[in-house]
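Possible regression after last week's pipeline update?

I re-ran a chain I had predicted before the update to compare outputs. Posting the input and the new output here so someone can diff against the archived version. Not blocking, just want to make sure nothing changed silently.
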Amino acid sequence: MTGHHPGRASGTPNGTQGYSETADVLVKQYESRSFADVHRGILRLLPPAPARALDIGAGTGRDATALAALGHTVLAVEPTPEMRAHGQRLHPSPAIEWLDDSLPELARVRARGQSFDLVMITAVWMHLDQVERLRAMACVAELIAPGGLMTLSLRHGPVPAGRRMFDVGPAETRALAARHGLSTVYEKERPSVFNADGVWWDVLAFRK
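New output (post-update):
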C-alpha cells in the first residue's frame, strides 16, 4: 500500500526514501481511499476466509484491516517505523500482526517458516532495482501456498521528489513470476485512484 522495501544497506531499505519524512501526509492520502476502491479489479480473486494473508509494504494498515474484516489473519510487513506506528494506532486488530521487514530478502518473514494463501505487494515493486526484483520474486514465491494468490501493482509516471523508483513493466513482471511457478490470472491498467497527474498503474495477479 505504501511502496517501499529493498535491501537493508546501512540499516534502511533502499526503497523507503521519502516515506519517513512524509508519513503524516501519506497517512491521510492512503486512508482517503477504501480497500475496495483500490483493489476492485482483484476482489473476486481473493481466497475465501479464513485465509493467511501477507501484506508487504502494509503502510497505514488500510488493506490489512480490510482483509482482517473479511475474516483473514494478516501479517503486515512495513519497514518504515513512522508508517508502522500510524498503522498500529489507526487499525488495532487481533487478526493483524505487524513486522519490521523488507524486500528483497524478507528475512524475518521467511525465518518464520509460514506459507500464505494471499500475498499483496501494493505500490512496492517499482522501488526495487532489477537485481532486487530478481531476488524478491524468488523470496516471495517460496512464501505462497500451493494454489495461493499474489497481487502486485506497478506505478508509472513522474517520480515524487525524494523517492527511489524504477520503470518496471508488466511483461518483465509476468516473465519473472512465471520462472517461479506463478501464472498470471489478472492484468489491467488503471488510472491513479488519487488522480495524480500523469500517473497510472498496472495491476497484476498470479496463482501458484
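Follow-up from reviewer: compared with the archived run. The chain has one domain: 9-207. Marking as no regression found.
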